[in-house]
Amino acid sequence: MGDQVGRVRDVVVTLRVGTEEPRVLGLVVEVPGRRRIFVPMTRVTSIDAGQVITTGLVNMRRFQQRPTETLVLGEMLDRTVVLVEDGTDVTVEDVGIEQQRTRDWAVTRVFVRRPGKGLRRRGEAFVVEWRDVSGFSVDEHGQGAANLLATFEKLNAADLATVLHGLSAKRRAEVAAALDDETLADVLEELPEDDQVEILGKLEEERAADVLEAMQPDDAADLLSELPQADADKLLELMEPDEAAPLRRLLAYSDDTAGGMMTTDPVVLPPDATVADALARVRQPELSPALAAQVYVCRPPLETPTGRYIGIAHIQRLLREPPSALVSGVVDQGIEALRPEVPLGEITHHLATYNLVAVPVVDESDHLLGAVTVDDVLDHLLPDDWRARDRAMLEADPGLGPEVTRGP
Asked: By the 8 A CB rule, do 69 and 23 touch?
């Protein structure tokens, strides 16, 4: 038995003139560290259900798509093409590849579906030969992203961001357009800044404003700071005033200070709230683990900037108290809050000294402005391209795609 190399993520083909079948050039394989490499079909000795066998050495250089190359999963599926026989529009749902007498591999068949009629939600599905359809070599207008989204529907936001990062710019925009606002907001928070700006710039302005509203305020402010000032101002005007206000406050601070890194949506409760109230709030699924780890107790008003900040109620302490107890009775007042102008180095030292996952930020009058979480600090400590760097210590993602194994 050979060694496992990784998992197949896509198939690279080159389209040819007329009805000539596309030649399969190779496979895009994800190896440990989330690196995507190219395995030529000349290295493939066998393709079975759930497994691809290769031979020889594998080049570990990162895959870069060339202009003449097409990705089957990323660019061919869900495309609208035309049946040559009757001119009917059909949607591509899958393709079949076969090895030729010349030992080359080619796309020989296409699994397509007709549009549904009447009360039928889905139309007839059937397999045709490659030569029996047309429309693959023309502009990709009308190509959707439904199949691609269905393929990756079980991925979390970070992994879906990795997928989007590896797609062509056109396909990335299509997938982003098909995502709902909440999911797209979560994915944008995980993408490099260049991808964020590119995707946001291709959305309708009203929808871009809606997506910014769904993002964490600190991430949305970071993204706005990367845009031209006129574009950022326009989006802020399109946002709801109560959603735009915290972003305007965050944009007033340098991005490497507590004010620039903080989120303005920590869990805030008044001193007369009960432990049961606090636990109900931290159970909310949209909260990150860092924000759910502690509750900030303040005098009203409870929206940031709040009334006078009193202290922190840690979740470990809350779990040990009766539900009817008041949070004011379990407040930790020994953790010093930070001022918004405090630099990154001091924030890091503060978190490490007190073993915290988040730290409150207050103004000169002790009003709570927000909280800096450890994940925000890590984003600023790591290199700008950390998401794209190799993570060789990680195990390969056990997600979709057959295993690729180097033969004995």
From this structure: no
pLDDT tens by residue, 107-123: 999 999 988 776 556 78
Report the run of H or E that residue 262 belongs to, with start and end.
Answer: none
Q: Is the pTM of this model over 0.85?
A: no
- Burial class, 247, CB count within 10 angstroms (exposed 0-12 / middle 13-18 / buried 19+): buried
What is the C-alpha R_g of the chain?
26
Is residue 398 in a domain? no
In a domain, 391, yes or no: no
- How many other CB atoms are found less than 10 A from the CB of residue 22? 22
- The pair of three-digit structure tokens given for residue 224, joined into one six-digit string: 């706005």
Instruction: Kindly state whether residue 9 falls inside one of the protein's structural domains.
Output: yes
Domain presence at residue 89? yes
Q: Which residues contact 244 (CB under 8 A, 6 or more apart)?
A: 236, 237
Nearest to 16 by CA among 63, 68, 67, 66: 68
**At 209, which amino acid appears?**
A
Q: What is the pLDDT of residues 299-325, one digit of tens each?
A: 999 999 999 999 999 999 999 999 999
> CATH code at 336?
3.10.580.10
